[in-house]
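Try this one yourself first.
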């Protein structure tokens, strides 16, 4: 799927703007705060239905405005299997109507649920924030896995929705037990089943994804991912029953998953965790490696390359790795941002389409 045009209205720093992208590589050049990451965030939102910067959707609405809008049209592909698609996300603060904030998804102007919206425009994003995949909390590593799998697998998206719902309901029941001692057996049975059924789907798919990532050659940085899964089953829930009633929350299941990235020693045993022992430079390379593997995974799963988004990563990489990334251009549609055009060799820049942003 090729992203052709992007239209933004009251989205972050953009009151009204339109952009056109090359089928190959587009470079967005602009000084700090000129809106490069905002633009990438809009594309990511149109791809996944979420922001990569904020949990609070209304943050994306321009200051002082009530409704923010991002829409994109994809180019029909040359073989004619994909027609032009229009994707749109409308975020509303709800304030002017005295309503709750809302986020609406539209495909060709028809409202959709996120499960049917995500997956139309598939992206792989690499931004400096991704360093947190190594250094941050387990939740960020789960987000990484979700980002890979939600875009490539509708069943994973569906399992995620049902799992989250079952977890919410079950936690409410556990909280009731904790506070009042009242145990609603029939209700537990229903939500336990839903939780286990969908939790096991999530675990299986995450396991397969991590296996794939481990089996691929790693040209940038050799490392291994160890899946620290929190298995969910009737036995495990039984085992943790007392503890969960005391805590008022569900203590096992994929919402507690994590993975570690480890270095190899000379005899190819995984030894030290990159999080604890890797230098910042090594951690950056590991993240670059993970992103390159994500590209491969997505391309293999969907049999077409995703849109590659690179947000201001050149200032963080040494020359050797900048060249490594530049060598990937042309293999898929790519949109990259930079503050300094010097990072991109003239010869390569000539083949790119250039968008220049000015400081507001
Ligand atoms: N909701 C918003 N409304 C208006 N401006 C915003 C909003 N969120 C962020 N900004 C502004 O956007 C600018 C940062 O844009 P960004 O895309 O991060 O720049 P960069 O080019 O450095 O990546 C800042 O000036 C910030 O104040
Ligand atoms: Mg930025």
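Now uncover the answer:
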């Amino acid at each position: 799927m090729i992203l052709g045009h992007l239209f933004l209205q009251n989205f972050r720093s953009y009151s009204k703007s339109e952009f056109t992208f090359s089928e190959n590589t587009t470079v967005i050049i602009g000084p700090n705060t000129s809106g490069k990451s905002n633009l990438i965030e809009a594309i990511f939102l149109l791809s996944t239905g979420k922001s990569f910067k904020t949990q609070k959707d209304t943050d994306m609405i321009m200051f002082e405005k009530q409704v923010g809008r991002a829409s994109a049209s994809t180019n029909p592909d040359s073989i004619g299997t994909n027609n032009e698609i229009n994707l749109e996300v409308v975020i509303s603060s709800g304030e002017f109507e005295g309503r709750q904030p809302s986020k609406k998804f539209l495909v060709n102007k028809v409202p959709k649920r996120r499960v049917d919206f995500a997956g139309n425009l598939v992206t792989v994003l690499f931004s400096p924030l991704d360093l947190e995949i190594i250094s941050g909390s387990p939740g960020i590593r789960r987000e990484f896995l979700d980002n890979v799998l939600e875009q490539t697998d509708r069943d994973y998206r569906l399992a995620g929705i049902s799992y989250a719902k079952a977890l919410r309901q079950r936690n409410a029941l556990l909280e009731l037990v904790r506070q009042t001692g009242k145990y609603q057996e029939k209700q537990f049975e229903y939500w336990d089943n839903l939780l286990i059924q969908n939790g096991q789907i999530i675990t299986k798919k995450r396991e397969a994804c991590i296996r794939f990532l481990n089996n691929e050659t790693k040209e940038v940085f050799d490392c291994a991912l160890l899946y620290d899964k929190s298995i969910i089953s009737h036995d495990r829930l039984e085992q943790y029953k007392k503890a969960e009633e005391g805590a008022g929350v569900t203590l096992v299941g994929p919402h507690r998953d994590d993975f570690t990235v480890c270095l190899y020693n000379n005899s190819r045993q995984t030894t030290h965790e990159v999080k604890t022992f890797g230098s910042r430079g090594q951690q950056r390379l590991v993240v670059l490696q993970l992103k390159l593997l994500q590209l491969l995974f997505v391309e293999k799963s969907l049999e077409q390359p995703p849109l590659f988004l690179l947000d201001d990563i050149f200032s963080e990489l040494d020359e050797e790795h900048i060249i490594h990334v530049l060598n990937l251009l042309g293999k898929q549609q790519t949109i990259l941002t930079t503050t300094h055009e010097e990072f991109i060799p003239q010869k390569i820049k000539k083949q790119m389409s250039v968008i220049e942003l000015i400081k507001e």
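Discussion: The pocket of adenosine-5'-diphosphate (ligand 1) is lined by residues 12-13, 30, 32-38, 59, 61-63 (CB under 6 Å). The longest helix spans residues 185-215.
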